[in-house]
Amino acid sequence: MDHFPTGRASFDPPAGTAEHVWRQVVDLMRDERERIGGRDVSAPVDVRELRAAIGAYDFDRPVAPAEAVDGVAELLRATTVHTTHPRYFGLFNPTPTLMGVVGETLAAAFNPQLAAWSHAPAAAEIEAHLVRFLGERLGYPRDAAAGSFTSGGAEANLTAVLLALTRTWPEYGEKGLRALPGRPVLYASAESHLAWLKIAHATGIGRESVRLVPTGPGLRMEAGRLAELIAADRARGDLPFLVVATAGTTGAGVVDPLHDLAGLCADHGLRLHVDAAYGGAAALSDRLRPALDGIERADSITVDAHKWLSVPMGAGALLTTDAEGLAEAFRVTTSYMPDEIRGAVDPYTSSQQWSRRFMGLKLFLSLAVAGRAGYAEQLERDADLADLLRGRLAATGWEIVNDTPFPVVCFADPGDGTWDRHDALARAVVGSGRAWISPVRLDGRAALRACVISHRTTAADVEELVDAVNKART
Question: Domain total for the chain?
Fold first, then answer.
């Protein structure tokens, strides 16, 4: 006799109940897609009211599925900055593709375990195929790219630093920093994403080991100034080992001089990593790809699919042609993991992660359905809309203060260049609910920043933004 009753219906409800829940979710998604453009992009939030609404779920009593779904959907609708809105001109947070959302759903439903290849052969090979495809588009030799999907750009960049430390000092992996004859130092642009400080902390080299190189004209890292810093660090006994170039800075969408930096690294015996978390997507467009020339000379590259490739959070990737170095950086053996399969790579042996989500599926499905040409068309359309925005802003008296082929538009009020002025302008636009933009400092200069990142954005939305910033200025 079975003394264990059937599992809880709330975990695996009867077919009719489950179908009702899924219909409700599909209806919610359709409602969001159809109505989002008519809603405010964001709204003020009362923290106490929000916490009270969430706290009402005390978990002492079960809630009907329909009630729970509707309740959470309303919380998200009322308090989220809607990155899916066509007038979200904010950070690199996209409106996800339909197939990206489908991919997330399938990944959750099948729940493959991406640690051991033998547990999820199709999932592991789909991600490996994507790594090779992205690597080839970025200029690596055909089928030479190795790497892994990550939670985002920060983890991918951490992987690049671990790889560089391991390859520069083989003893680092076993003996740590104490085996090194000095302090490792890495270099990144002053306009780079400052995840490098967290990474330096986590790897043990210390935040003071990050040299932020001043930018020159166009907000690009200056190779000459970099060379001076390297020489000075070596003269005092420090150990330069890695240069980080950025292909699409967060603030201004700028691409560092990749060929110059690659040549400098070759001359000085340093490794080069390119953080192309945002700009790497341009490799799918033949028209935009020249902005990345030189990236193929990098020892490693970061790309975030959850930025300009428009898939749901989170999906980063680390790409390299150094599969052996990556394996050494994460080398480990355990008795409880399944035996490796000849000719295959267990994902946990090339990644900081062990158990993890099937992150690549949302990009695989999005690419499969749109095709590279479809992605190229969308990326180029975003760039064209940004050109339209630049023209309209300039025509109404704003000064464009960045130079990039990517759809990041930074503009300033020539009559008042203070931070307070631009911060107030951004607050006024956001407070109106009509659009979302942000203030930004570029080499110390105050400006406003707008990025075309939603595939729903149209020329009419660009005009709405121009009207909103001009009304805020009056």
Answer: 1
Burial 171-195 (b: 16+ CB within 10 A, else e): ebeeeebeebeebbbbbbbbbbbeb
- The enclosing domain of 130 has a CATH number of 3.40.640.10
The reply to whether 312 falls in a domain is yes
Lookup result for tokens 């929000």: 50
- Judged by phi (left if over 0) then psi (alpha if -120 to 50, else beta), residue 317 lies in beta
pTM of the model: 0.95
Q: What pLDDT, in 10s, does the model give residues 291-311?
A: 999 999 999 999 999 999 999
CB 317 within 8 A of CB 159: no
> What are the pLDDT digits (tens) for 259-296?
999 999 999 999 999 999 999 999 999 999 999 999 99
For the CA atoms of 87, 92, 98, 103, what is the dihedral angle to 10 degrees? -160
Other C-beta atoms closer than 10 Å to the C-beta of 334 total 7
Count of H helices and E strands in the chain? 14, 11
For residue 211, report the phi and psi dihedrals to the nearest 5 degrees.
-100, 120
Q: Are 302 and 160 in contact (CB under 8 A)?
A: yes
Q: Pick from 242, 179, 176: which is nearest to 209 by CA? A: 242
Amino acid at site 356: R
What is the Rg, in whole angstroms, of the alpha carbon atoms belonging to the chain? 24
| Residue carrying structure tokens 């197939």 | 99
